[in-house]
Design brief:
This protein has about 130 residues and is mainly alpha-helical. The longest helix is centred in the middle third of the chain and has 25 residues.
Length: about 130
Amino acid sequence: MYTKRLLHLALTSLLATTAFTASGAVDEDFMRNVEDTFKSADSAIGLKDAKTATADAKELEKLFKEVVDHYVKKGDADEGVKLSQKSIDLSSKIVSTVAAKDFDSAALASAELGRTCKTCHNVYKQD
């Protein structure tokens, strides 16, 4: 059951990323993909599943780079750039702490990443 769900999540993530690449926009589907990937990484950290946590955190790094680009192109969105860059840094921290088998620090970075996402959503609410 868990393997099927993980496979479904990975396929959904791949399709959403492909859709994003084709559309070139940070939209609701893109952000849903970010959220799903974050939830998967957070869960994998809790389960001490280093392989999944690492793959998801690396994917988050890529996705947040797209978000940085979005805010840079948007202009007048310094807070979005700052929060997105912080999200990249936290995703990288998850990769390094999981590699060191320090799941407690990875969990703290994941929690901070969740708060950073929420802060950005509060600043840039979709109307």
